[in-house]
Structures are given as C-alpha cells and as structure tokens.
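Researcher: Please predict.
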Amino acid sequence: MPDKVHPHPDRVTTAALMPALEIAAGEGLLEAASLDDMDEAAILPGALHAAVETLLSFGFTHLLDIGGTDHLPLTPRFEVSYHFAAIDPKRRDPKAPVSRFRLRVFPQDQDPVVPSLTKYWPSANWAEREVYDLFGVRFDGHPDLKRILMPDDWEGHPLRKDYPLRGTRRNFVPGGRVGPIPPTRD
C-alpha cells in the first residue's frame, strides 16, 4: 500500500478524490501523487474500472486522451495512460481552469491486457485501437479491436522498442553483401 497522498493545495475541491481512489483501487493502486500540473495515480489493470467510476463520481466526465508507452528494458514494460478532465457544464468563463487527472495503468509484460473503457466513453474506441496497433496492448471488452493505422497484414507493433527499425521482412546479412547496393541499374 502506498504512502498517504496529500492533495495539492490548489485543488481543494477534489481533496477527497485521492482517498476515495485509494479505497476504490485497493491492492491495485501502485502509487498516487499530487503533482503541480495535475493529480495522478498508477494502478494495475484490474483496478481500472473501479478507478474510473470513482473519477466519474468526482466529475471527471471527459476522457481527453489515451496513450501508450514502452519502457523497455524497465519492468513493468508497458504503460497505458489516460487523461481526464472535470469541466463544469455551468461555467461561463471559457478561460476558467479545468481540473485534470492522469491515470497510468501497467499491464503484464508478456501478455499486456487492459480493460476497455468503451462502455464508459465510446470515444475510447479509436484511441484504444491505436495503442493496440502500435504497442500490442490488447483491450479486454473492446467491441472491434483491430489495426487502425498500419495495414491489416502488418507484422508486429512498430512503436515497441524491440521492433526492428527497418521492419521484420528485411533480410539482414551480417558483414554486408558482396556486389552493388540495390537499387541498381543494369
């Protein structure tokens, strides 16, 4: 269990969020921090839906973005990060500050699987497909998990750090080949 998290002094309206998130995530909470730009929590995939429901109850109803990171050679290797915003629908000043929250999820290294958030936000569909396509993280419960950026017959996930820079189909010959460098003119 992580140390007690104290909310940032500028975020008194969401001061009860971090303790509620600690209770909701339970053993799935790895770390929580109140940073200068926003609060964040690091969790295991099993705690994602409980954490999201807690964030929804505190007004974080906007899913801004989903991103992936490959931390190879570190463990845990993969991270899926979610950014949320709590925008008051009654606010009149468009320049009024908006509370934001970052949720970092760390799936297993060998078979990275994270629950899908498409049942909460249909807009999560394409962002989750992008993370799947580029990093190979699968989203359990996604309605149509398939590639979105790479061709359907593409092999591998090109933003993984162990992905060959020139693709998987290039035949590399250590020491080089004898003869002209292709393309050549006859």
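Model: The beta strands are 29-34, 39-43, 62-70, 78-86, 99-105, 113-115, 138-140.
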